Amino acid sequence: MQNQLKKIYIQDDSALVALCSELAQSTVLAIDTEFVRTRTLYPKLGLLQINNGETLALIDPISIDDLSPFWALITDPNICKVLHACSEDLEVFLTAANCRPVNLIDSQVIMSFLGHGLSLGYAAMVKLFTDVELDKSESRTDWTKRPLTQRQLTYAEADVEYLFEIYPKIYELISEAGWLEAAKQETELMIERKFTPIDPESLYVNIKMSWRLNPLQLNALKYLAAWRYEQAKKKDMPIGFIAKDHTLIGLAQRNPISVGAMLSIEGVELLDIKHKGKSMLQVLNKANKTPESEYPEKIVRLDDYPGYKQIFKQVKSFVANSAKNADLLPENLASKKQINQFLSWYFKLNGADKNNSIIDILHSWRYEVLGKPLTEFADNGFK
Q1: Alpha-carbon dihedral 334, 335, 336, 337, rounded to 10 degrees
Q2: Catalytic residue selected from 122, 155, 167, 223
């Protein structure tokens, strides 16, 4: 007979130390976080949930001064941590404690290898394995407000109660399917991305329509994008609250010499100019002092590469066939973004080189399944 699950609410440091000492003996922990992120750059941690099958604890990070015993569990290599759709949880770990998880696996990633697509929600997974319909009415709640209601606590408990119950089942399925190691590597890739520091100097490349700008304009955009990010970090505000993309593009294109001139530029956000015009003018003045030899190169769009559309179709078909042979969904093997990442590398566009180490298709589990044969396919003229 299965032991009754003990449920506790941890609200002080000594209770957390005692809990984590007990949980340190576990082999598997189901973990989740609740946070608020409506008007901030960084998530504001509101609650931690953890379950080892015997004790399910909700941990209040607002009333506890030292969460280091919890972070020690996250970095313990002897304990497997399972989370569902952990991307934002990783940001919580990063921003709250610079805590990089060790021995962590994402159950959403596991489900993707089992043929359920890339974004199966937690409630759908629970329904699939237990036939329980979870109440998701508290998903938009403010987890930083106190006291939390019993309804909120019950909702939070469910996020790790069923996860621990389901994990052995999906572990067995993924092991039988032969993709356990790949799921671990895919989770590690997510961790690596989250914990790789953002380079403010390269943010301009990802701004929509940046490809339309010439090197002089791109230099201005580069300075503006880096400034915006630093402001967002300093003020803990979403970057769009500092200035909109189309404002930065307009200013970079026209390079105005006064705040008044900014107001006449088509597409700029008037509120951006009102609140940040003077600061952005200073940024543009600094950018204007950059020697021409240091300007960024013009961005080449893949769409403009000769024969791109036909090549993309051929690669997409190649991926589909490879996925079928591996008994995977095509999007699980390579997304459109990952295909384009590979093609940019292969065609050496925008400074990419043949030793680029961030091409997903050429690394980890994907290399043997897709990367190696796809490179040979490309070398044969995509035929």
Answers
A1: -100
A2: 155
Scored b (16 or more CB within 10 A) or e, 104-140 reads: bbbbbbbbbbbebeeebebbebbeeeeeeebeeebee
159 is catalytic: yes
**pLDDT per position as a tens digit, 204-218:** 999 999 999 999 999
Known catalytic residue at 199: no
Annotated catalytic residue 32: yes
3-state SS class at 44: strand
Residue 1 lies in a domain: no
Active-site residue among 60, 89, 161, 186?
Answer: 89
For this structure, is 89 an active site residue? yes
| pLDDT over 80 at 112, yes or no | yes
pLDDT tier for residue 356 given thresholds of 50, 70 and 90: low
Range of the domain at 171: 6-195
> How far apart are the C-alpha atoms of 318 and 322, rounded to whole Å?
6
12 is catalytic: no
Last residue of a domain, one of 294, 329, 352: 294
User: Among residues 195, 215, 233, which one ends one of the domains?
Assistant: 195
Catalytic pick among 76, 106, 157, 159: 159
